[in-house]
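tool=predict chain=A
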Amino acid sequence: MKKFSIIILLSIVCSGFITAQNTVNDSLSIISIKWHQEKIRKDVVWKSAQTMLYNSPQSINIIEIKPKRKNRLAIGYCVDTLITTSSLCNQVNAIAGVNASFFDMQNGGSVDYMRVNGNIIHKGRTNFDNSNAAIVINNNKLAIVKQNNDSLWARKLDGNDVLVAGPMLVSNGKTENFPETSFYLTRHPRTCVAICQNGTILLVTVDGRHEAKAEGMSTNELAYFLKILNAKQAINFDGGGSTTMFIKNKGYNGVVNYPSDNQRFDNEGERKVANIVYLK
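tool=predict ok
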């Protein structure tokens, strides 16, 4: 295993993937993570780890989904209210799911463009630079698309289901460049979705705001982590206290990560949200 990791690391170095922000040790740490793995159903695996990464404690959960006909992703949502990720997952009878895009904390409902089953649920906003990407589900195929210069870019995406979020983390196998502002630089809990080079889909949560057990990641750290996991495309979802992963009949009422809204390192600190991405 050690020899295999070194070979992978050498290929990363030779390809120029390691930046000033990311070191050889970071890359080796990611490659060497000892994952606890549990099969959820055929072609769906839950991977979890408590590990040291970026010189900090990290708590990471990944749902690894092979792109098979049975493994159908969908968007669940509330129109004008908020509900916890686990409750929304239970409402739609999800096998697994994560919180998704941004929402109106006062009035409920989503704030970014959303289309479900061909129907526009929310027209979105135009003044939030972080929401520069979208997931598109069409004929049971997932795509992650980066915003272009067209102000109507999201509405023109071809798909039955579209959800705008962001920022884009990885595009065509390369990590994005991020502004040097608090949203990007500060370590927070994070939720994201990635599509690997081989087509495998990753639903990912990184816990945070628990200094001794889970510090969270900056967007650069998250993007680099996904890059080393062989992501071709990746999008950031709403994070912070919203970050939640649900797996049916696992954890506490299905919650398997450690949401931070109750400021305790347990499974009970869910924040109410407006939308999810889930596995049917």
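The chain has two domains: 1-32, 35-279. The chain has a mean pLDDT of 91.
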